[in-house]
């Protein structure tokens, strides 16, 4: 059974950046079969990984509901096979993209399908990295309830800290949500962390790493370059290499 790592936290805290860099570092060392899952309906992880999103879980679902031909084709196939066909191949990793349902409506069905995808596909990989939606919802809806490692990303702001606190509250209140390990990553770290340290202690949350503000990330972002092309000497890549060693061991 492979190891699953879910990355959650406040909007804009650096979840996708961290997910992409962990994926790249694991893909580079080539020792494990790596699956990256973009569980955020905003769909950003493929671009950070240098890929264009192709088939998404949301599209598969729509086709199965709306297109009798597509349904007939998949009728005799187990659902995990259908999911596996949605995988995209990157350089040393595979990618599954959730996407978003068309039109208004609830995310329950899509989250259920995503959870199914996570549970079944992760068994075929050594490591699965899940880039979650911002905020506590996917933890609350138990999409990532039994992951081996739940990483909460925060910046040093009070808002980042509050969202981290809400996620911890959700975990502590619901006995069915039991990540093997929960850790905090402080992103865009600039030296001052007394607020977040105080809270981390209160929640009993281990700090698994600090990622500095990295100008290379800003430049790559502005130029639309994938983060996986960042040089190994980049400060954020160095920091995430350490984090990866801690959470993967
Ligand atoms: N360590 C860093 N140094 C410099 N810029 C960073 C760093 N981490 C993240 N950023 C920038 O901050 C922005 C938000 O990062 P990212 O997209 O990874 O956050 P997110 O948590 O996935 O956001 P969302 O909630 O929208 O999915 C991006 O423009 C990213 O390039
Ligand atoms: Mg993101």
Structural description of this entry:
With 249 residues, this protein is α/β, with parallel strands linked by helices. It has a single domain (3-248), classed as P-loop containing nucleotide triphosphate hydrolases (Rossmann fold), CATH 3.40.50. It contains eleven helices and eight strands. Strand 6 (149-154), helix 8 (158-173) and strand 7 form a beta-alpha-beta unit. The chain binds adenosine-5'-triphosphate and magnesium ion (MG). Magnesium ion (MG) is lined by residues 15-16, 40, 44, 131.
Shape: globular
Query: What small molecules accompany the polymer chains?
Result: adenosine-5'-triphosphate, magnesium ion
Q: What does the oligomeric state look like here?
A: single chain
β-strand number: 8
Reading side by side through the largest sheet, how are the strands ordered? 3-4-2-5-1-6-7-8
CATH architecture: 3-Layer(aba) Sandwich
User: What is the H/E string?
Assistant: EHEHHHHEEHEHEHEHEHH
The overall number of domains is 1
Give structural attributes.
alpha/beta; 11 helices; binds magnesium ion; 18% strand; Rossmann fold; globular; binds adenosine-5'-triphosphate; 249 residues
């Amino acid at each position: 059974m492979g190891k699953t790592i879910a990355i959650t936290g406040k909007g804009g805290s650096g979840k996708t950046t961290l997910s992409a860099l962990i994926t790249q570092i694991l893909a580079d060392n080539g020792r494990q079969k790596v699956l990256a899952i973009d569980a955020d309906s905003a769909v950003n992880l493929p671009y950070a990984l240098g890929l264009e999103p192709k088939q998404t879980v949301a599209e598969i679902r729509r086709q199965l509901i709306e297109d009798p031909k597509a349904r007939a084709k998949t009728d005799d196939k187990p659902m995990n096979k259908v999911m596996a066909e949605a995988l995209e191949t990157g350089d040393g990793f595979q990618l599954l993209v959730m996407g978003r349902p068309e039109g208004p409506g609830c995310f329950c069905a899509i989250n259920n399908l995503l959870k199914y995808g996570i549970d079944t596909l992760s068994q075929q990989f050594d490591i699965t990295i899940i880039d979650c939606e911002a905020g506590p919802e996917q933890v609350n809806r138990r999409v990532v309830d039994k992951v081996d490692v739940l990483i909460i990303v925060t910046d040093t702001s009070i808002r980042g800290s509050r969202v981290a606190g809400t996620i911890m509250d959700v975990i502590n209140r619901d006995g069915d949500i039991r990540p093997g390990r929960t850790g905090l990553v402080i992103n865009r770290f600039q030296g001052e962390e007394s607020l977040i340290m105080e809270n981390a202690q209160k929640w009993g949350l281990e700090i698994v790493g600090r990622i500095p503000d990295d100008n290379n990330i800003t430049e790559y972002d502005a130029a639309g370059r994938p983060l996986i092309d960042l040089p190994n000497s980049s400060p954020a890549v160095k920091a995430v290499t350490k984090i990866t060693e801690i959470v993967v061991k």
